[in-house]
Amino acid sequence: VEIEKLKKDIESKDKEIMITITEQKTTFVEIEKLKKDIESKDNEIKKIKQETQVKQKQIVEQINENKEEQTQNIINTSSTSDLELVSSLKLNKTFTGHTSYVWSIDYSKFDNFQFICSGSNDETVRVWDIDNNKQIQSFNGHSSYVNCVKFSSYHYHNNRQNVICSSSYDKTIRFWDFKHNKQLQILNGHTSSVNGIEFSPFNGSRYLCSGSGDNTIRLWDVETSKSLHIFNGHTNR
């Protein structure tokens, strides 16, 4: 009886072993299949990457070709336009009067009349009537070279005055009413040549900035003739 029981136990164990082996084989097959699937997907991904890189390269090359073509078209167009412009240029008018170098000019319209003002090494500020091709004023108030001149839109829009602002090597900034032939204001403060001036594009051109050989930039209130601020950052003229 015990022998029979032992045989049955052995048979049962054999069956369990066979089942386990079968399951392991199935698992192994599934793993191998999964590996092949992964490998196949990897190959697909690599192929897609390669195709994408080729496409990107083609797109970049096309963009560069288009850029070169557009640039060349712009160059060709600009060159043609420039040549046409140069060939069409001609001397219209000549204003003679200064006795030395002219350092600065400005253009403006007052009451539908066109004017040019000029500042010169001969220490004068002059005003020219473009329509009638003649000098209408000459101001001799500066004691040295006139470096920069600007028409003052502030005076015209606020007081209907025809005014020029000038800066000079004599360290001053001056305002001239060329309709009534008189000096209006003098701005003092710089300790060296005032080389450049510019009216503000805001607040109706009420403010003026000036650059000087004293290494400073100053901001002025044209209405009050006061220096509002001094900028000291520069280390040379």
Helical run tally = 2
Number of folding domains? 2
Q: Radius of gyration, Cα only, in angstroms? A: 44 Å
Number of strands: 12
Low-pLDDT parts are none
Q: Which class best fits the helix and strand makeup? A: alpha+beta
The proportion of residues forming helix, as a percent range, comes to 25-40%
Give the SSE string: HEEEEEHEEEEEEE
What is the name of the CATH superfamily of the largest domain? YVTN repeat-like/Quinoprotein amine dehydrogenase
Level-2 CATH architecture of the largest domain: 7 Propeller
CATH topology of the largest domain: the name is Methylamine Dehydrogenase, Chain H
Most strands sheet = 4 strands, antiparallel
Write down the overall geometry.
Answer: elongated
Report strand %: 25-35%
Q: Summarize model confidence as the mean pLDDT.
A: 86
State the distance separating the first and last CA atoms. Answer: 123 Å
Strand line-up across the major sheet: 1-2-3-4
WD repeats: 95-138, 139-186, 187-230
Coiled coil: 31-58
Pfam family, one: WD40
Keywords: Coiled coil, Repeat, WD repeat
Task: Give me some keywords for this one.
single chain; 237 residues; alpha+beta; Methylamine Dehydrogenase, Chain H; four-stranded antiparallel beta sheet; 2 helices; coiled coil; WD40/YVTN_repeat-like_dom_sf; repeat; WD40_repeat_dom_sf; WD40_rpt
Describe the structure.
It comes from Reticulomyxa filosa. Pfam families: WD40. This is WD-40 repeat-containing protein. The protein is of the alpha+beta class and 237 residues long. The strands form three sheets. A four-stranded antiparallel β-sheet has the order 1-2-3-4, with no helix packed on it. It is 40% helix and 31% strand. It has helices at residues 2-88, 153-159, and strands at 102-110, 113-120, 125-129, 134-139, 146-151, 163-168, 173-177, 182-187, 194-199, 207-212, 217-221, 226-231. The protein folds into two domains: 1-90; 102-231, Methylamine Dehydrogenase, Chain H, CATH 2.130.10. The mean pLDDT is 86. The chain is built from two helices and twelve strands, in the order αβββββαβββββββ.
